[in-house]
Amino acid sequence: MKPSLSQFLLGLLVGALLCCVGFAWIGQRDGKAADGSRVREITVAHGLAVTHPVHQGIEEFGRELDRLSGGSLKVNIFPGEQLGTETVCLEKTQQGEIDITKVSTAPIGNFVPVFKLFSLPYLFRDEDHYWRVLDGEVGEDLLDALSITESGTSSGLVGMTYYDAGSRSFYATRPLTSADSLKGLKIRVQQDPVAEAAVKSLGASAVTMGFGELYTSLKQGGVDGAENNPPSLLSSRHFEVCKHYLLDEHSRIPDVLVAGSKFWDSLNETERAWVDQAARHSSKFQRELWAIESQKALDELEAAGVTILKADPEAFRHLTKPVVEQFATGDRKEFVNRIGAVK
Ligand code: GCU
């Protein structure tokens, strides 16, 4: 049957419409906004769940950057280790495959050794001290130090801002009541020699693995426990397996937003200022959120049947002291002294 004229015209119209949609889509992928201006898509990768307050901080970074740049810089977030563990993300960020990553400062120590500092047990006196250090000259100097390796060459990374990651405490599938109850347990740690040594100093054995693998390992008995802050214990759902959380607060290891030098160098000066401003803004936003979410997480964990006990930190501090002596050397020793001097 031959199509009628009206069917033919309708066909033409639909065809023309499809072409427009197609070109508009290609334009977007090509990095062009509807008004023809350039849109830069920025890949940000991290390992946490989308319900985690750190993820929400990164979302705020995206919103603020969009606002400051008038839509010319767009952030695409890849959460939950979609692009790899934190160590892999750091490598990809160095190589320019990822533009920005959010990692714990712990694995950075394998790239820039001075960063091992943050994992030292009881480095900070309390939360106020932690933020006074990070917001002050020492925090800024450490962000700058992230760009340089021990041999003085570029690390390929640019430290942008800190996010609150609270304090880390032990949780396990077995009852935890004191430092003694960790003896003989297999405890997962990040890729972090300081955390490994700290766990060993408590008589447990340390097992290094990515955060994403941990749920299965806890469930299958590969490890008996781990250590983290309350929002991470909650959003990872490790609490489904680990019903014992001992608040010993042995470390305060901040999270950090890290750009790759390749990405950073590809921005013009105005764009860099926007990225910097949006990052710092998101840090303030995330910190406020953290305070609320951290308490909420403890309440939810308790409601889910997790036994939460406060530990006497003195026993932990005493047992982990040799770890501080082992790792607080060279540049790190200088920073430890400067941190101690911050009132
Ligand atoms: C925290 C931290 C993450 C890190 C995780 C871990 O949740 O925010 O960046 O990956 O600890 O223990 O691996």
Q: Would you mind describing this structure in some detail?
A:
- This protein has 343 residues and is α/β, with parallel strands linked by helices.
- Helices cover 47% and strands 17% of the residues.
- The strands form three sheets. It has a five-stranded mixed β-sheet with strand order 2-1-3-10-4, with helices on both faces.
- Strand 1, helix 2 and strand 2 form a beta-alpha-beta unit.
- Helix 2 packs antiparallel against helix 11 and helix 7 crosses helix 12.
- It binds alpha-D-glucopyranuronic acid (GCU).
- The site of alpha-D-glucopyranuronic acid has 12 residues, from strand 3.
Keywords:
five-stranded mixed beta sheet; 343 residues; 17% strand; binds alpha-D-glucopyranuronic acid; four-stranded mixed beta sheet
- Residue share in helices? 40-55%
- The ordered H/E elements are HEHEHEHHHEEEHEHEHEEHHEHH
Radius of gyration: 24 Å
Shape from CA axes? globular
How many individual helices?
A: 13
Largest sheet report? 5 strands, mixed
The strand order across the widest sheet is 2-1-3-10-4
Sequence stretches where pLDDT stays below 50 over 5 or more residues: 8-30
Structural class, from secondary structure content? alpha/beta
